[in-house]
């Protein structure tokens, strides 16, 4: 993409200020889009780098489509070289985090009506190698219930499913392949400084000791087995990871450690899926799996506090832009450089009148022509953008500060609101 070329140092088109400006404009457009949606009494439930998800609060497909089309037209009418379109219609969604959700997607039947319903998955553990088939199957089942069934019955059915799953695992009803975990070697196994705590590295070293190949880039399969001495530390757990062939071998005394799988492969992804559903908690889920619930009791230290931030529109400009560099205006006559704190503030200080800007030096008070102001503002903006070492958020605040302090409509609105 052009953005990638602008932001990549090895590209012939490398220009980090332009890349930063691209993200700034994208964020600005998304912010305006969210405001437009709320102005139409629509609820924006999620926003990504190039999209927003809107809850129409409708169950009728045609009605939801019309709301989407009306909203799309409102947004597209605001831009000449930017076009938004509807990407998908979801009937139910389990939104866990940024870029992490599961949803039932309704396909169009080609006649404007609802067609086939499919499941769309983004960012879930089930797509990663280091989770066993056992873990993925449990996640799939726990994810399916909230999407397909009424909220009132979901938790009860998940609890029943986990109770049944725990019993089946301990009774050995699952095939050995369900317990295999895969992980890729990032380097040769002997090059890992912390090899003792990494299961796949331990298995790779055991393979090499037997004359087998195990090198950087190889995907190593392994299974956690019961430790012979009962140790449960992370180091001991890694040491008790074994290649599936060693577990299958006739006469092998290795036994799968079901408790490890229940506590590290089944419980964590299920808990993440259920944390936003009322009626359960980690300790209760652990209890259903037959684990010691006390080990998983939540404490005030375990539960991250939600971070509440004041809406930017509700705090003063002085506080909002405390870290931004102030703008300054230079008088061409006497050379005095005066701070420009915004239209309203400079009106009070006497620098601004109905005829324009005047020098802040009381001994000069010469008129500052508009072209001079425009050039100074342009140079200021170029200077800010050229500081490519700014983080995106800091650059955004700086540009927003300059735009806000020079916004006549905003100043007039403040005056009208205070009158």
Quaternary form: single chain
State Rg. Answer: 30 Å
Main beta sheet, described?
3 strands, antiparallel
Helix-strand pattern:
HHEEHEEEHHEHEHEHHHHEEHEEEHHH
Roughly what is the average pLDDT, rounded to an integer? Answer: 81
Number of strands: 13
Name of the CATH architecture of the largest domain:
Orthogonal Bundle
Give the low-pLDDT segments.
299-314
As laid out across the biggest beta sheet, the strand order is 3-4-5
Protein name: DNA-directed DNA polymerase
InterPro entries: DNA-dir_DNA_pol_B_CS, DNA-dir_DNA_pol_B_multi_dom, DNA/RNA_pol_sf, DNA_pol_B_thumb, DNA_pol_palm_dom_sf, Pol_alpha_znc_sf, Znf_DNA-dir_DNA_pol_B_alpha
Domain Zinc finger DNA-directed DNA polymerase family B alpha: 313-389
Organism: Rhodotorula toruloides (strain NP11) (Yeast)
In words, what does this structure look like?
With 419 residues, the protein is an alpha+beta fold. The protein is built from 15 helices and 13 strands. Strands 3-4-5 form a 3-stranded antiparallel beta sheet, with helices on one face. It has a 3-stranded antiparallel beta sheet with strand order 6-7-8. A hairpin with a 4-residue loop joins strand 1 and strand 2 (52-55). The longest helix has 24 residues, at 16-39. The model is unreliable at 299-314 (pLDDT under 50). It holds the Pfam family DNA_pol_B. One of its GO terms (biological process) is leading strand elongation.
């Amino acid at each position: 993409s052009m953005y990638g070329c602008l932001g990549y140092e090895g590209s012939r088109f490398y220009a980090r200020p332009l890349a930063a400006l691209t993200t700034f404009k994208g964020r600005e457009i998304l912010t305006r889009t969210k405001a437009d949606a709320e102005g139409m009494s629509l609820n924006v439930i999620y926003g990504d780098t190039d999209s927003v998800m809107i809850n129409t609060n409708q169950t009728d497909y045609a009605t939801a489509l019309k709301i989407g089309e009306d909203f799309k037209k409102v947004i597209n009418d605001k831009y000449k070289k930017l076009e938004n379109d509807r990407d998908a219609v979801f009937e139910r969604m389990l939104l866990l985090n940024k870029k992490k959700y599961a949803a039932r997607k309704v396909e169009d039947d080609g006649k404007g009506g609802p067609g086939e319903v499919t499941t769309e998955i983004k960012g879930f553990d089930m797509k990663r190698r280091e989770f066993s088939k056992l873990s993925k199957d449990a996640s799939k089942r726990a994810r399916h219930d909230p999407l397909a069934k009424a909220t009132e019955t979901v938790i009860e059915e998940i609890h029943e499913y986990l109770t049944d799953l725990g019993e089946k695992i301990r009774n050995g009803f699952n095939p050995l392949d369900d317990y295999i975990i895969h992980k890729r070697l990032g380097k040769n196994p002997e090059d890992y400084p912390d090899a003792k705590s990494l299961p796949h590295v331990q298995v790779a070293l055991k393979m090499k000791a037997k004359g087998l190949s195990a090198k950087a880039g190889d995907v190593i399969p392994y299974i956690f087995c019961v430790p012979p001495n009962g140790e449960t530390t992370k180091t001991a757990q890694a040491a008790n990871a074994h290649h599936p062939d060693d577990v299958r071998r006739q006469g092998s005394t290795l036994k799968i450690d079901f408790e490890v799988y229940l506590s590290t492969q089944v419980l964590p992804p299920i808990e993440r899926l259920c944390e936003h559903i009322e009626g359960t908690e980690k300790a209760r889920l652990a209890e259903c799996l037959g684990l010691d619930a006390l080990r998983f009791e939540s404490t005030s230290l375990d539960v991250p506090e939600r971070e509440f931030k004041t809406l930017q529109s509700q705090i003063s400009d002085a506080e909002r832009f405390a870290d931004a560099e102030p703008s300054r205006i230079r008088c061409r006559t006497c050379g005095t450089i005066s701070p420009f704190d915004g239209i309203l503030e400079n009106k009070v200080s006497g620098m601004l009148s109905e005829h324009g800007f005047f020098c802040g030096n009381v001994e000069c008070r010469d008129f500052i022509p508009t072209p001079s102001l425009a050039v100074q503002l342009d140079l200021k903006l170029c200077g800010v953008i050229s500081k490519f070492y700014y983080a995106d958020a800091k650059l955004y605040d700086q540009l927003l500060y300059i735009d806000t302090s020079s916004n006549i409509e905003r100043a007039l609105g403040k005056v009208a609101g205070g009158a």
